């Protein structure tokens, strides 16, 4: 092939003008460029593999155009030239192409066009194009066709009826087909817009909606909130946000896999949609965090009431792939009481309220307070002071008595850590335990609590007081340690405490990693210590593990005890837990007992033990010594 050094010189151009019709050349080049445009446009809407395919198509078509130009410059006859370009394009299966005569009848079409239109070529050759064009597009197509017969190239969108009967939108480039000085027909290149429109709609959907749950995402939530705040300001309406986070959701993913967690998120999303009015708005913000926008509240109290209803809805049992699951949530609340608030600041405040709930023990809701503005700095300061507190031995243990519901005798104590801060005074666990867990310092604190509780219990026994077990809570960071049993054994050896007087409390959610739990609990029970499940009924698996793990005692969570006299559901749950545990020869203790009515209900249903403010709050070791002394009333 000859090298092309540039455009033909003047003499050559004159010869070419005499041999060929220039308008046909322009038409062919426009057609080729149109093909390139179609291919390149596909790059914008397709996946990576298709992008490479489209790029290859565009390149091959461009080469075809260059070859045609070179052939022309070598003075091929017009007929050969015409045949070459038409046959090349028709043989190409890259894009749909058809040739119409001057009457609009199909003269030829390639396989790509046949597939796009949904007809075999034999069904359309010799047939008018109007046969497949929707009546709404015929006028536009006829105008474009007439323009092509006048030598113009145009691009339009038309609707046709696919061979299978469904409507189809096409983008069409209609160019004149020239033979010497005469337009002999038109060349039509088409592109199915349905896929592109679906992709555009998909992209738009993904920009504003969460793909997994179908809920609006953070972007759309902020847009909706901005719009709602503007209207609420004009109409003087109260607007509120519930910022919701599932408690211990990461443990679900870690124990059962993300697929299991995704199913849970979808079911939670369904409940949020189920319990919402048309005027309100729910969104998935990220991970296991959801936001709910209430557009027409009566007051902050109204928002609190709605959030408590929301907590109850989330707490309803789940069924995931045949597996029963119970989960709770924490909710941070904020309203538009500050007229300077925008969507960003309101979401931030709701998130801060959520953090406060998490720090206070989860499974609750809380309204934002302006006094929290410096909470981040406060957290960092407290975390630093906590590190020093470990070194300076500022932590102390208080003990809450546990009583036999039949005899009223003290049968045990639970060790509860407190921080005796030199400037702040006694800091309750809800204010520093979440920070300790977050920073990892909970392991050091937990190790100290275990040793101090065992040491103190042995000291009471050596003082001649009745021997009772002491309960110690294990954090999840402690429980996942491979050497936990070895650590406990070392503590028992150092303190001299008989293992039967140590009760280790784990939370229900810690039992999800079955293989680790089985090994760990077996090692601990071989030491002779007792195992209790704390906060029973609020975790993820509830009853399924009780038959398989060496559990000695269940502790009914205070959230069920609190309303047993008012809420029939809670009363039934508590009664069922007691009956089920006794059938498995497991002792039951209820925590958070604050009224005589609660105590009588538990006694009536044969609950074994109780602890709570009704008989005694957590007290110092000296107070426990007095309470254990014979004759103490």
Quick structural overview:
This protein has 633 residues and is of the alpha/beta class. The protein is 48% helix and 21% strand.
Please provide a written account of the structure.
This protein is of the alpha/beta class. The chain has 3 domains: 10-199, Beta-Lactamase; 209-373, Reverse transcriptase/Diguanylate cyclase domain (Alpha-Beta Plaits), CATH 3.30.70.270; 377-628, EAL domain (TIM Barrel), CATH 3.20.20. It contains 23 helices and 21 strands. The radius of gyration is 39 Å and the shape is elongated. The termini are far apart. The model is unreliable at 1-31, 37-60 and 62-79 (pLDDT under 50).
Give the SSE layout.
Elements: H1 10-19, H2 22-43, H3 48-73, H4 78-91, E1 97-101, E2 106-109, H5 111-117, H6 121-124, H7 135-149, E3 154-161, E4 167-179, E5 182-192, H8 193-208, H9 218-235, E6 238-246, H10 249-256, H11 258-274, E7 281-286, E8 289-297, H12 300-315, E9 318-320, E10 323-325, E11 329-335, H13 343-359, E12 365-367, H14 375-392, E13 395-404, E14 410-421, E15 425-427, H15 429-439, H16 442-462, E16 470-473, H17 476-479, H18 484-495, E17 502-507, H19 514-527, E18 530-536, E19 553-556, H20 558-561, H21 568-583, E20 587-590, H22 596-604, E21 609-610, H23 621-628
Parallel strand pairs: 11-12, 14-16, 16-17, 17-18, 18-19, 19-20, 20-21
Antiparallel strand pairs: 1-2, 1-5, 3-4, 4-5, 6-8, 6-11, 7-8, 9-10, 13-14, 13-21, 14-15
Helix pairs in contact: 2-3, 3-4, 10-11, 14-15, 16-18, 18-19
Domain EAL: 379-632
Organism: Paenibacillus endophyticus
Domain GGDEF: 237-370
């Amino acid at each position: 092939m000859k090298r092309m050094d540039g455009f033909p010189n003047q003499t050559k151009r004159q010869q070419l003008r005499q041999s060929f019709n220039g308008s046909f050349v322009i038409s062919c080049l426009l057609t080729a460029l149109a093909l390139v445009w179609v291919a390149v446009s596909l790059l914008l809407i397709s996946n990576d593999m298709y992008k490479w395919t489209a790029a290859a198509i565009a390149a091959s078509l461009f080469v075809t155009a260059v070859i045609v130009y070179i052939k022309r410059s070598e003075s091929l006859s017009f007929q050969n030239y015409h045949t070459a370009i038409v046959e090349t394009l028709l043989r190409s299966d890259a894009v749909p192409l058809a040739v119409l005569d001057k009457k609009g009848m199909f003269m030829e079409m390639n396989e790509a066009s046949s597939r796009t239109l949904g007809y075999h070529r034999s069904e359309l050759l010799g047939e008018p194009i109007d046969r497949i064009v929707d009546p709404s597009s015929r006028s536009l197509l006829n105008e474009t066709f007439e323009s092509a017969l006048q030598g113009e190239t145009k691009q339009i969108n038309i609707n046709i009826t696919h061979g299978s009967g469904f409507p189809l939108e096409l983008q069409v480039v209609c160019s004149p087909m020239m033979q010497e000085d005469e337009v002999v027909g038109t060349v039509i290149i088409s592109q199915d817009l349905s896929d592109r429109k679906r992709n555009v709609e998909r992209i738009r959907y993904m920009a504003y909606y969460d793909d997994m749950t179908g809920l609006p995402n953070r972007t759309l939530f902020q847009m909706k909130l901005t719009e709602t705040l503007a209207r609420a300001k004009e109409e003087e309406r109260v607007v509120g946000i519930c910022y919701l986070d599932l408690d211990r959701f990461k443990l679900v993913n870690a124990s059962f896999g993300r697929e299991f967690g995704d199913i849970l998120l979808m079911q939670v999303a369904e409940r949020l949609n189920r319990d919402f009015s048309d005027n309100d708005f729910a969104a998935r913000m990220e991970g296991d965090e959801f936001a709910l926008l209430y557009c027409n509240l009566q007051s902050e109290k109204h928002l609190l009431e709605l959030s408590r209803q929301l907590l109850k809805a989330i707490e309803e049992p789940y069924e995931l792939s045949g597996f029963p699951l119970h989960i709770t949530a924490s909710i941070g609340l904020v309203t538009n009481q500050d007229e300077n608030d925008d969507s960003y600041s309101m979401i931030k405040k709701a998130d801060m309220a959520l953090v406060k709930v998490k720090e206070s023990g989860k499974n609750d809701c809380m309204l934002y307070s302006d006094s929290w503005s410096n909470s981040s700095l406060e957290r960092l300061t407290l975390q630093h002071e906590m590190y020093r507190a470990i070194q300076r031995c500022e932590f102390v243990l208080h003990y809450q008595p546990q009583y036999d519901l039949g005899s009223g005798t003290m049968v045990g104590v639970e060790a509860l850590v407190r921080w005796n801060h030199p400037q702040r005074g006694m800091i309750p666990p809800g204010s520093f335990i979440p920070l300790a867990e977050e920073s990892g310092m909970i392991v050091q604190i937990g190790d100290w609590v275990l040793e101090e509780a065992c040491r103190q219990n042995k000291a009471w026994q050596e003082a001649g007081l009745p021997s009772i077990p002491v309960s110690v809570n294990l954090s999840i960071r402690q429980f996942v340690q491979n050497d936990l049993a070895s650590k406990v054994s070392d503590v028992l050896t150092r303190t001299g405490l008989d293992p039967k007087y140590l009760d280790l409390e784990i939370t229900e959610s810690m039992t999800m990693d079955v293989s680790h739990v089985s090994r760990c609990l077996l090692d601990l029970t071989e030491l002779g210590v007792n195992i209790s499940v704390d906060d029973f009924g609020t975790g993820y698996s509830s009853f399924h593990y009780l038959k398989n793990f060496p559990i000695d005692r269940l502790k009914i969570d205070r959230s069920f005890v609190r309303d047993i006299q008012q809420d029939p559901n809670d009363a039934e749950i508590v009664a069922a837990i007691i009956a089920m545990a006794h059938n498995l020869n497991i002792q039951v203790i209820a925590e958070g007992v604050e009224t005589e009515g609660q105590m009588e209900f538990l006694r009536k249903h044969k609950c074994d033990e109780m602890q709570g403010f009704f008989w005694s709050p957590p007290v110092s070791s000296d107070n426990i010594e007095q309470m254990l002394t014979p004759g103490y009333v």
